[in-house]
Design goal:
Layout: E1 2-3, H1 12-16, H2 28-33, H3 36-46, E2 49-53, E3 59-63, H4 66-74, E4 79-80, H5 108-113, H6 122-141, E5 148-150, H7 151-155, H8 157-167, H9 174-185, H10 197-219, H11 227-233, E6 235-236, E7 239-240, H12 243-274, H13 276-284, H14 289-300, E8 305-310, E9 314-316, E10 319-321, E11 326-330, H15 331-334, E12 347-348, H16 369-386, E13 387-392, E14 397-398, E15 407-409, E16 411-416, H17 418-421
Parallel strand pairs: 3-11
Antiparallel strand pairs: 1-12, 2-3, 4-8, 5-16, 6-7, 8-11, 9-10, 13-16, 14-15
Length: 431
């Protein structure tokens, strides 16, 4: 089973015709209006290490092949995370370097990470499942017979449910937290922007940092086992974390959750809507759901890019990165590298040996990967139990972001299964 989905393969002539010098991968609007996959395919073919310079003099190298992406993300001795991990930080550095997990290199990164692992597995994961199932139930109840379902809008609730369970966040705070994290992830998107993109980012950071600072203060000395309390009480290298370290790591976890799960869900629904044969196969055999989730993660690559800086001169495919230069790893390109994935530009189910790096690679592999997989699995178990058919109901609207690959609008028309129409309860398969 396979689907071309919203994009397809290109001929050698198509890729040779791409003017790489005219492409601006830094521009968030490009990712909303154009198809970066065609550009990335041309780069993998012709310029796997490509330098772009911005009008203000800032510059960065683009890495597009899978092996190079794994090397940049996986080797902290060659590429540091402590000068900014997001492309929008290019040339600005990161005030949270050495404090926030994603902006800290080993060995301190491991010292920060190890005490948090238990919150993303075992009993904590089981507890989070209940909130996730409640959020999924709310989402699937929005599916109406012969109605149009905006998957992008509805799926936005999913990561908040999982993050809220891990961080003990009151449900009445979810809408504000979701809005602020959207603003932080995509400050140039019209649906998120408040004034200029710089003002949007500043507002988002102020609101989120103030929120988590208040929560950390109010929970000091109280009973409970959640991420905020764990950060506030744990010690790293014999010292307690500062209030700033607690706040920026809470922010990072929430941003990471919102930047991936919802957009992976929406993009996977879109692929299924484009291929009724594939959707029918999953509906008739729900055992395919885990494979569907993995292919959806590869196909959408919702965390579009990560930034690193070369510690010393480094040779990669296509040339040398000088010490100190910025390198953008395009995860969406690496996950469609035709030398690693057969029929890489197609949504294939089941896909053998799906070695995608949608959750990153190496020391910074996503701490919440198990939570995201659980959330997506529960969602698609419920969808295939409820929905007979899916079809596109209008053009999707892509998010303007060089960090997150997703949608702000994705209308899908559904036809419910007979038992759902008759009011019979639908049960998700147990995990």
């Amino acid at each position: 089973m396979r689907s071309d989905g919203p994009t397809g393969g290109w001929s050698a002539a198509d890729l040779d015709a791409v003017d790489l010098d005219a492409v601006d991968l830094f521009d968030a609007r490009f990712h909303a209006a154009d198809d970066p996959h065609r550009v990335w395919a041309a780069m993998r073919r012709r310029a796997p290490l490509h330098r772009q310079e911005l009008p203000d003099g800032r510059g960065f190298w683009s890495v597009t092949r899978y092996q190079d992406a794994c090397r940049v993300l996986g080797n902290h001795r060659e590429f540091t995370s402590e000068r900014g991990s997001l492309l929008q930080q290019l040339g600005k550095g990161d005030a949270a370097a050495g404090k926030m997990l994603v902006a800290t290199d080993p060995p301190r990164h491991g010292e920060l990470r190890r005490p948090l692992r238990a919150l993303f597995s075992g009993a904590s994961l089981v507890a989070a499942e209940q909130r996730v199932r409640a959020a999924v139930d709310t989402l699937v109840r929005s599916v109406a017979e012969d109605g149009v379902w905006d998957v992008a809008e509805q799926a936005a609730r999913l990561p908040m449910a999982a993050a809220a369970a891990l961080m003990d966040l009151p449900e009445e705070d979810w809408p504000d937290l979701a809005r602020w994290t959207d603003m932080a992830a995509a400050p140039e998107d019209p649906a998120c922007r408040v004034g200029s993109s710089g003002a949007t980012l500043a507002i988002a950071h102020h609101e989120l940092f103030e929120y988590f600072a208040r929560e950390a203060r109010s929970r000091a000395g109280t009973e409970g086992e959640d991420l905020i309390r764990r950060l506030a009480t744990m010690c790293v290298e014999g010292a307690a974390l500062s209030r700033d370290e607690v706040v920026v790591n809470c922010y990072s976890v929430l941003l990471g959750a919102n930047a991936t799960t919802a957009h992976t869900a929406a993009g996977t629904v879109l692929a299924l809507a484009h291929d009724p044969h594939m959707y029918r196969a999953v509906r008739e055999n729900p055992d395919l759901v885990p494979a569907l989730v993995e292919e959806g993660l590869r196909w959408t690559s919702a965390a579009r890019s990560f930034l690193r800086h070369a510690v010393a001169d480094v040779e990669l495919s296509g040339g040398r990165v000088p010490a100190g230069d910025a390198v953008a790893v395009w995860v969406g390109s690496a996950n469609r590298d035709e030398t690693v994935f057969a029929e890489a530009e197609r949504f294939v189910l089941p896909r053998a040996d799906n070695r995608h790096i949608a959750f990153g690679y190496g020391p910074h592999y996503c701490l919440g990967a198990a939570v995201a997989r659980m959330t997506l699995r529960i969602l698609f178990e419920q969808i295939v139990a409820l929905v007979e058919e899916l079809e596109p109901a209008g053009p999707p609207r892509r998010l303007a972001s060089n960090f997150v690959a997703g949608y702000t609008r994705l209308p899908v028309r559904t036809r419910l299964r007979a038992r759902a129409r008759s009011g019979m309860p639908t049960q998700a398969r147990p995990l």
